[in-house]
Design brief:
This protein is of the alpha+beta class. The protein folds into two domains: 116 residues, Ubiquitin-like (UB roll); 238 residues, 2-Layer Sandwich (Creatine Kinase, Chain A, domain 2). The protein contains 14 helices and 17 strands. Helix 5 crosses helix 6 and helix 7 crosses helix 10. It is globular.
Length: 473
């Protein structure tokens, strides 16, 4: 039995006031939002009582085996021809149920995956992040996370997109503006509508501005607990895509949809700090510098960064932006206010509150549940081992041989992740092999279609990348 009768009764009782609240606000339906391994929300639109039902709704395990372009990997150890692709169950996380005012009679709720025997699905990214938070809590720490997403926005042209001519789409805005208040056409209405929608569902976006690229924008979130930060990120991405579609635009989260000497490509910097007893554990008021806790956490994050590079750069296209001259790190380095390193140390104007690490490797195409979990696991390792990191990098870290290189291609990143004891300890051996199989299959798809494989990534963005990534990350 999935849940015992008492569990089902308890969940039904917990759901009742939430159901009544949403019905009172006019909701009759709900979109059940289910994060996949790529950080993309999948799901169903169902009558509201069904969305909050204690027993959940059945889903194929292939939901967690999706490659780019909605292609499926059929050979993972989790869901394959030998085990006949078993079902799992998506169960509403009642704490995340919200009305969507702009949809009138529709609510939304995030879901967790469970297996038939009632245990959390070992491939579910929300469960994996929860497990990392629980392990950190056993050390008497919590964390705060604030993500910064960069995104390209284009004018929608359905005939061009149906023909796969994504490179011919016009950018939203003519100039290469960053922090611009005079961009033409103006973007303020889009920004206000996006931030307003997010605020209505408890997602707090603190800024929206133009960035250094044609049609490139950035939005940033306020600091949240790890699971809330990841939940907010995947929801905001979906809601921005939906809003853009309503306004004749299309939001693209590819890391590098263009090859240009001036566009900076898209990143997703992760701002991260540890908290103990309600105080920022990264700052030592006595020394007016980073605390020993912060240095231990940095050592662990730096140590695991090569193994976790697959999480920070999960697609073929992700590696196009791996260039410290584009402010994207190539090695596991750190430094004070250094934009070329892997971890930029930020003190801020009020360091007792704002001292933090800015992890600069991830792009907007990541799964934030996995990347945030990787920061927690790196910190946990560092706290347990108690090692000190090397002194800060000065200037260009690539001229300093002290810093380990990060895998520079998808196949190298797959093998580094697959063979890493740290990855297995953090995420479980089953998940490591599962994700490695999917990403290995992704590379095979690319090389089977695009001549010269890795060499092709030195030129213009290929049609394969556009067709597989433009609307699917």
């Amino acid at each position: 039995m999935f849940f015992s009768k008492s569990d089902l009764a308890r969940r039904t009782e917990q759901a009742q006031p939430i159901l009544e609240r949403l019905q009172a606000s006019g909701c009759r339906f709900a979109q059940m939002e289910m994060p996949d391994n790529n950080g993309r929300l999948r799901g169903k639109v169902v009558p509201l009582p069904k969305a909050l039902a204690a027993a959940g709704t059945a889903m194929s395990t292939l939901t967690l085996s999706v490659k780019s372009g909605d292609q499926i990997c059929f050979t993972t150890p989790f869901s394959n021809w030998d085990n006949a692709f078993p079902k799992m169950v998506a169960v509403a996380d009642l704490d995340t149920a919200v009305a969507l005012p702009w949809k009138g009679d529709v609510a939304a709720v995030l879901c967790d995956f469970y297996m038939d025997e009632g245990v959390p699905c070992p491939m579910d990214p929300r469960h994996l992040l929860r497990a990392a938070e629980a392990e950190l809590a056993r050390l008497d720490y919590s964390a705060l996370v604030a993500l910064e997403y960069e995104v390209y926005i284009f004018e929608e042209n359905d005939p061009l997109m149906r023909e796969g001519r994504f490179r011919d789409l016009r950018s939203f805005g003519r100039g290469l503006d960053f922090y611009s208040l005079s961009k033409s056409p103006p973007f303020e209405d889009l920004a206000k509508a996006f931030m307003g929608r997010c605020e209505a569902v408890g997602v707090h976006v603190e800024a929206f501005h133009t960035e250094l690229g044609h049609g490139m924008f950035e939005y940033t979130f306020t600091p949240q607990t790890p699971l809330k930060a990841a939940d907010d990120a995947v929801r905001a991405k979906l809601y921005l895509k939906q809003l853009c579609a309503e306004q004749g635009l299309v939001a693209c989260y590819m890391a590098a949809p263009v090859v240009s000497e001036v566009d900076s490509y898209c990143g997703c910097h992760h701002n991260f700090s540890l908290v103990r007893a309600g105080e920022n554990a990264f700052w030592d008021a006595g020394t007016s510098d980073l605390s020993l806790v912060a240095r231990h956490a940095a050592a662990g994050i730096l140590q695991t960064m090569p193994a976790f590079n697959l999480l920070y750069r999960p697609w073929v296209n992700s590696f196009r932006r791996m260039d410290r001259q584009l402010w994207n790190p190539e090695n596991a380095s750190w430094g004070r206010d250094n934009h070329l390193v892997g971890i930029r140390v930020v003190h801020g104007a009020a360091p007792h509150k704002t001292a933090r690490f800015e992890h600069r490797a991830p792009g907007p195409d990541v799964n934030p549940y996995l990347t945030v979990a990787s920061l927690l696991h790196g910190s946990i390792l560092g706290l347990k081992e108690g090692e000190e990191p090397l002194p800060y990098a000065k200037g260009d870290p690539m001229v300093d041989a002290r810093w380990p290189l990060l895998p520079h291609s998808l196949p190298d990143a797959v093998e580094t992740f697959r063979s890493s004891p740290a990855a297995a300890a953090a995420f479980g051996a089953r998940f490591v092999e599962h994700l490695a199989c999917i990403k290995q299959d992704e590379w095979k798809d690319f090389t089977a279609t695009v001549e010269h494989g890795q060499k092709a990534l030195e030129g213009v963005v290929t049609d394969w990348e556009f067709n597989r990534y433009f609307e699917h990350v």
